[in-house]
Write a structure and sequence with these properties.
Layout: E1 5-8, E2 11-14, H1 25-28, E3 33-38, H2 51-65, H3 72-82, E4 88-93, E5 99-104, H4 110-116, E6 118-123, H5 141-152, E7 157-161, E8 167-170, E9 174-179, E10 182-184, H6 196-207, E11 212-213, H7 219-222, E12 227-232, E13 236-244, E14 249-251, H8 260-267
Parallel strand pairs: 6-7, 6-13, 10-11
Antiparallel strand pairs: 1-2, 1-5, 3-4, 4-5, 7-8, 9-10, 9-12, 12-13, 13-14
GO cellular component, one term: cytosol
Family: Belongs to the class-IV pyridoxal-phosphate-dependent aminotransferase family.
Protein name: Aminotransferase, class IV superfamily
């Protein structure tokens, strides 16, 4: 059996078990904040790794929650110990400043998803939402349950909605749409995560002078899109060609259509 390693509280540990106190709030309440990043070319300095942006996300959450800041140099050192073996790192910080870093491979079917797109299920139930949605906390139960249900129904992702039925985000990323020569994404104030990949795309599109429409995705708007996708730091851009609901289906163009310019914004940095 192949041994795996992870970094916890200043130490590189070989194994697949972590020891936590039975009254640890991270264990009992999911009281942690985390970020997941893809390390490009085994380098934290690569432009698409967005190391500083991920650390800033952690720092902002810790400041808002009033938690202790970690040893940032130790976090970077721990990440560097894992990055030769793993292209994806998940960095967790506990309320008392302890750090926990794990690694994993990219999904085996990532290229297929990027090229062919996926099916998403619309989670039209109020409890299937993320807790404190503008932050990444260890309490991800709502999103996790939505994804499990989607997979049971033959979909690969779940789209979360608000009380009015507006589409918010997927269980693991931000939504994007193409229509009328404009790029559309729900605004942060509707209760979504300000994703690192989302911020990267907005910055690139603005630099090119392209129009971005940040408005709520109501039932009328979602039927007008030519193409839609979701983004996150690991998967980059994944087209959604079909959205299934309890009583209808939404069909969209594949990535060969209007989403290709967004995908090129990632590809240009990887040459």
């Amino acid at each position: 059996m192949t041994k795996v390693s992870y970094w916890y509280n200043g130490k590189l540990i070989l194994g697949d078990r972590i020891e936590l106190a039975i009254n640890d709030p991270g264990l009992i309440y999911g009281a942690t904040t985390f970020t997941t990043l893809r390390v490009y070319h085994h380098s934290l300095a690569h432009p698409l790794t967005h190391w500083d942006a991920h650390c800033a996300r952690l720092s902002h959450s810790l400041q808002v929650f009033g938690w202790q800041f970690p040893d940032w140099e130790r976090i970077r050192y721990g990440a560097e110990q894992l990055l030769p073996s793993f292209p994806v790192l998940r960095i967790v910080v506990f309320p008392d400043g302890r750090e926990w870093i794990t690694g994993r491979p990219l999904p085996a079917d990532l290229s297929e998803r990027q090229q062919q797109g996926i099916i998403a299920w619309l989670a039209e139930v109020s409890h299937l939402r993320r807790s404190l949605p503008t932050y990444k906390t260890g309490n991800y139960l709502g999103g996790w349950l939505a994804l499990q249900t989607a997979q049971q129904l033959g979909a690969q992702e779940a789209i979360l909605v608000d009380d009015q039925g507006n589409w918010l985000e997927t269980s693991t990323g931000n939504l994007w749409g193409a229509k009328d020569g404009c790029w559309w994404t729900p605004p942060i104030d509707v209760g979504i995560l300000p994703g690192v990949a989302r911020s990267h795309l907005i910055h690139c599109l603005e630099q090119q002078g392209l129009k971005i429409c940040q408005v709520p995705w109501n039932q009328k708007l979602v039927q007008e899109f030519d193409a839609i996708a979701y983004t996150n730091s690991v998967m980059e851009i994944i087209p959604i060609h079909t959205v299934i609901t309890a009583d209808q289906r939404f069909e969209y163009r594949s990535c060969a259509g209007g989403l290709a310019p967004l995908q090129r914004l990632f590809g240009e940095y990887q040459k």
